[in-house]
């Protein structure tokens, strides 16, 4: 089942540029905005997209993503509905698509059924922050691989070097580097502490490139985050912009980043 | 069958540590150290000294004569309501505050539903001079005002959880987010037998002082260590875990759990997890959980803030699915009636949570010769306003 052609994430990571990745919550602001948002993001030069599957209890997220998730669920978003919306996405969109969410909805859908569906649609990777490395390796790695899905793990400033090496060995795409000890959307700008952390991780010469997330909100933080890392992910700041400016404002937001 | 946590924190298929990487260093440090720290002689000495001199343990095992006569069986009450701060919660917070000190943590966070765990945490923080922040659902802040005032007086900061159903589940989410934001100096004192491993096991071990005492107290009174039944109410399940612990491997002891049915199991306003839940992930562990078919966690309901939780601890999920424990659920009305009955027969006003355990007599008939030990997990002072409103006193 593993695709002969290279996974789109792997391909994208080989491009000689700093990657801009955008997270949004599926089903927000409106239930049916999913495909339009993805197309707009690609049209305006975004390199990769994390499609957020909303969850009722997003432990690792700050107020912005909590609120967009609550709104999306209120709008009626479900796992099945999202897969339905994405059914034909590969007819129009070429950049890597990653589904990001919490593990319980995936577990209820059935991990294998979920992965199979992702494969059929053309999803390239999965980020489940609360699916820990050891459980993944023991129970689910074979399923992810069978369907050609790259599982992305997180590291934080508190992650030990030993653990980082373990995560690097288990990864086959990129490592999601959480910029600081925080939930999403809660830091304003990067200081020396982050610079040192970015430096330290770069010096480890990991086999997987790193993409920085949490706290990236504008051109300045994007530049800082990608000085050493391969790319950066913007989530909360994008959702805030989407809330105030709507889909028509996506172009301006992306232009303001780079 | 094994009813205790294995080294990875599983009770059968339940438990484990489903946590985001941000929490990994803290939870892993705790996992590696908790047993060594807990069973150091000096730790045990300090823990038991505080339980004796500060909490007032052992808590009495009281033969409830009139209640026994009424229900034609032998009922003993394990008087956790007589503990300092008024409930079983303090057994765990004493243990965890000592654990936090050994780990070098200086800032304490906690979640609370009824406020009993919040008060017990604020109390031990005052005792040890540590900063204390308690997350509490906005709804619970309103319905448990006396406990909010107590926490503030004890020097704790009470932060309202404004998301979701604004009750215990959401307070727990906020506490976890706080821990993510403060990974170095902070210890999270979880109040129930929930959360990622090693929390359910650690909390159970600290609370197991309850069943340990029941054994020798019953030996003194009845000439035998094992009752025929132990009964406890269950939200997350810490008082139940502590009440059952030493009896889990004694097959002749019946284990009984009473959940909160709210307005009725099938009304959509309930917290009866064993009846309404299925396996899922909540607050870092795999357990029985009330949720939609899509895996979204359902907002529970109970008149008692302490049982208003959409899951049960993983140990209890295992006791339920393995058939080791009998699960019942009591409605708001049944629990309130049982609370009033206890008050009028024995002169003890229980917490509404605890009232659920006493509602067992409305669901099960015991034999006259049965010895039934009920965990009287908390006193009802905090619930007076609810009793006044309910009974129009």
Write the layout of secondary structure elements.
The complex is a heterodimer of chains A (258) and B (393).
Chain A: H1 8-13, E1 19-25, H2 34-43, E2 48-52, H3 63-75, H4 79-86, E3 97-100, H5 103-109, H6 111-121, E4 125-127, H7 133-146, E5 150-151, E6 154-155, H8 161-170, E7 175-178, H9 192-203, E8 210-213, H10 219-226, E9 231-234, H11 236-245, H12 250-257
Chain B: E1 10-11, E2 14-15, H1 24-38, H2 41-55, E3 61-63, H3 65-71, E4 74-78, H4 89-102, E5 107-112, H5 116-128, E6 131-137, H6 138-143, H7 145-153, E7 157-161, H8 168-181, E8 186-189, H9 199-207, H10 209-222, E9 229-234, H11 238-244, E10 254-262, H12 273-276, E11 278-282, E12 285-289, H13 314-321, E13 325-331, H14 332-346, H15 352-358, E14 371-375, H16 384-391
Parallel strand pairs in B: 4-14, 5-6, 5-8, 6-7, 9-10, 9-14, 10-13
Antiparallel strand pairs in B: 1-2, 3-4, 11-12
Quick summary:
The complex is a heterodimer of chains A (258) and B (393). By secondary structure, chain A is an alpha/beta fold.
Descriptive notes:
The complex is a heterodimer of chains A (258) and B (393). With 258 residues, chain A is of the alpha/beta class. Chain A has a single domain, classed as TIM Barrel. In chain A, 45% of the residues lie in helices and 14% in strands. A nine-stranded parallel sheet of chain A has the order 5-4-3-2-1-9-8-7-6. The longest helix of chain A has 14 residues, at 133-146. Chain A is globular and about 45 Å long. The model of chain A has no long low-confidence stretch (mean pLDDT 95). By secondary structure, chain B is an alpha/beta fold. Chain B contains 16 helices and 14 strands. Chain B has a six-stranded mixed sheet, sandwiched between helices. Chain B has a four-stranded parallel sheet with strand order 7-6-5-8, with helices on both faces. In chain B, strands 1-2 form a two-stranded antiparallel ribbon. In chain B, strand 9, helix 11 and strand 10 form a beta-alpha-beta unit. Chain B is globular, with a radius of gyration of 19 Å.
